Amino acid sequence: MNNANIEIIEYSEIYAEDTVNIWRKSKERAIGQKEIHSFENHLNFLNNILNIDNDVYIAIDINTNRVIGILAFNENEINQLYIHIGYQGKGLGKKFVDIAKNKSKGRLTLFTFEVNKKAQKFYENNGFKIIEKGNDNEENLNDIKYEWIRST
């Protein structure tokens, strides 16, 4: 990935199907199970629910005009962060996390699935610490709650 070929923009519905496609594929790879919601429900969630309490950004590969990542967050929490499988491990996730950190009040929480070891390593490498473990999600998988606090 050449970072000069990546543009991070505010989400627009013109990218809805592309965004949901990479989101579903990335999540499936990360947790080893199919998305439980239909594609149409996922589109509705993205376009009408997620954006109520979150800023939503996407990353575009400007060479292909394809969506390669999504970030949904607010000043307290990262709610969604998914990167196209072919673009993982190349710095885009860190760029997304840095956007959320910069717009936060100095503290962010997030959840990741316990089976998603890559995500755990990524978040821990980016200053997040485990504060809780549990199982409160639709996928019926164990969750890990992380927290990041800006150092003073």
UniProtKB/TrEMBL annotation:
It comes from the Bacteria. Coiled coil: none annotated. Residues 6-152 form the N-acetyltransferase domain. PROSITE patterns: GNAT (PS51186). InterPro entries: Acyl_CoA_acyltransferase (IPR016181), GNAT_dom (IPR000182). One of its GO terms (molecular function) is acyltransferase activity, transferring groups other than amino-acyl groups. SUPFAM superfamilies: Acyl-CoA N-acyltransferases (Nat). This is N-acetyltransferase domain-containing protein.
